[in-house]
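Repro:
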Amino acid sequence: MDNVEYTALDLYSKVEDLLGVNEVTPKLYENYHKTLRELEFSSLLDVGCGRGAFLVQIREEYPTVESMGIDLSPRMVQVTRDKGVEAYHIDLCVVDKKFDIITAVFDMLNYLDDKQLEEFMLCVENHLKVGGYFLCDINSFYAFDELAVGSFIKDAEERFVTIDSDFDDVEYISEFTLFEKGESGFEKSQETIIQYYHTVERLEELTTLQLISESDISVYGDEVEKHYLLFRK
């Protein structure tokens, strides 16, 4: 179930730390941790684990829980493994285990178009134990239409990245251009990453999982930027 090309994901992994992600994640993670503290579980799978920051926190707070991550970016998986966390470059649909908890943190679902999302939700159902939970968040319309559209430039001396983004009410298209300092000068990499706007109602339509909790998240101001969702099998 390929969604974004591996090369695009790997390029994103090279610039993620320049995008202010570390400023947003603590507030977002709070929602996941609050939910997890109210649940009993012995296994957890983080889909789209990225650099493994969330899984490191899980390992520290729940040392007896069997936790692992998967990601479609080989580079991200290696960074996660370097932190001592179990992680694999593999698609959810071919994982050979079932879990009490599956998480998809930081708008991972927005990287899937409608057809891919339907397949993904089915794979989540198939990999959850009966009574298990799926925790996820998706971007609001405001986050795409107002907050993220435009141009972004970040100069970090040996890396220089520009991002130009546009949104047409369905697709959020970002053109990433990265210049990295090498032995013979700066090397240029360029990729397009597409995210898709999904409503909470659409997610409910695509799964037999029961939506038991929905909350809105505001990070930068008063407007809702993310919807945090808790499903149960």
